[in-house]
């Protein structure tokens, strides 16, 4: 009975979207609880700044190699192979898995050695005490891309066979691993206990999918050949996507570097507010975009332009109708939200005010951030990865320029600083520079959404109807 439950197949797109939305919701609430525990245990402190900063380099490796390439390219390639010859599809899977593991382990080992130099270069605001914690913690977290690499290939298999239930459990288990580290390991090992929890969560993210993947027919074999034809095709498909993902990761690294030079706790404040605003984006934007992608691809491949437009417009309206009122509520109740979730233990009143202000500024772009994945997948359905990548790079450049400019502008008294302080009741707080980061992020997200919208609608008008 339990085996049948875990290996159940989702029959419809709506069902898949529902499962993913519930998963995002549960995972999101666990993420909020995780942040609540972190705030209570460490406050907006240097130690917590180091914890968030330590993710940046391992996350860069994961996002470039796995999120930028494997996730985008593996599933369509596996589908092609499986429809022709099942045994060759499983053989191809093992070749790809072993090749990506080779690259992940090799790159992680090189960066493991270079970690002290990278910390000095990327986080110039960290002093000797912060670097003493950041270097070993970053090295520990290099295990996570390896587990996530295996996990995401297994996810591609499960998605092909519509095993969305097991796939939906992965982010939940990841957050539970971190919560375990905060509750049971941090009291003894400090922030390193939380890092161990991250690795435990990443391992569970992978392990839960292994039985279901085996049930689908996967069996691991050590097959290794870097000249295998499927690998060449994957690398060809992933190149444009990698540039877009790399730009986003560089963006986060630059933001973290700027925050490291503001004041202790700035990185934590930015990350806490970003995590809070990400909840509706994940539940609404991501779930709708993932669910509609196959339908858009099929409609476009069959030349059904009107059906494509109808499906896209329907989802566009649904996302807009849901995100606008949610954004307004988040903005209006930002102080209460942050107070309930984060103001505990070492997390004080001033920390709450700054985090709430950051959340309010993030809320202004929730609608744009939720719609961007839909537009990006629309371009992907046209087999166009270059256009959204170029727009992403432009948005990242804008965000970096604005982040430097706005944080600098908020360091001294002027009309803009006075306006922000009066608008968000920040009287009594001397350094509010961190607020420039979410403001820059929101402006660049709206810019990215606007540019995607313009180019999308220009292109859709030029494409003739091929069928109905």
Task: Summarize this structure as a short list of keywords or feature phrases.
single chain; 468 residues; mainly alpha; 19 helices
Estimate what percentage of residues fall within beta strands. under 5%
What's the N-to-C terminus distance? 44 Å
How many whole angstroms does the radius of gyration measure?
A: 22 Å
Looking at the chains present, what oligomeric state does this protein adopt?
A: single chain
The number of distinct helices, counting runs of at least 4 residues, comes to 19
Compute the average pLDDT. 85
Main beta-sheet strand count, sense and barrel state: none
Describe the 3D structure:
The protein is mainly α and 468 residues long. The chain has 2 domains: 193 residues, no CATH class; 196 residues, no CATH class. Helices cover 83% and strands 0% of the residues. The chain has 19 helices and no strands. Helix 2 packs antiparallel against helix 12, helix 4 packs antiparallel against helix 5 and helix 7 packs parallel to helix 9. It is globular and about 70 Å long. The two termini are 44 Å apart. The model has no long low-confidence stretch (mean pLDDT 85).
